[in-house]
Request: fold
Amino acid sequence: NAGVTQTPKFQVLKTGQSMTLQCAQDMNHNSMYWYRQDPGMGLRLIYYSASEGTTDKGEVPNGYNVSRLNKREFSLRLESAAPSQTSVYFCASSFGTGPGRGEQYFGPGTRLTVT
Amino acid sequence: GENVEQHPSTLSVQEGDSAVIKCTYSDSASNYFPWYKQELGKRPQLIIDIRSNVGEKKDQRIAVTLNKTAKHFSLHITETQPEDSAVYFCAASIVKAAGNKLTFGGGTRVLVKP
Reply:
């Protein structure tokens, strides 16, 4: 049981390049989330998927797109990377709603640098 | 949208003393308040959470209290140990069918001095 996994662990991009961050969970969770964490700051929600087949914007969605490929996988795409997108990206998952089911479990993160 | 403020931003305590971190939230509809611990270079890990129908919850040396009227909640760590040194984040959300959108506070860096 690997929990939440993310690839890659590290990535360096040049301004204008594109890339996709991958996330997968094996806990049969319904909901999945993408956050970014800038140095010395809290996490901010980029996009989330409440259930398979649905996605919605979070607090900072500009410059990103997402795909909920199936129940297990949720990817984040940067179409044209900018230095302001330099950050650590965390994927998380949860069952969704109901007592004891709101807890979010985080992946190990992807450290992205855009030069 | 929801806004969560967290204080203090840094906290230094002597081993064995208690540490208290406080958060306020803005949306009175929020009903779920988790606390995460993040060690350097690691992922956030849930340490305790509380729902709006409960005023206090305790798990060994960690406790969380919630005051819905004042819209604030606090994390209490007793008998601190060096391994408690980390960054702690509070968060708030409305748990509903359309997902659980957490809004995080800015974090508190806790240093426990031996």
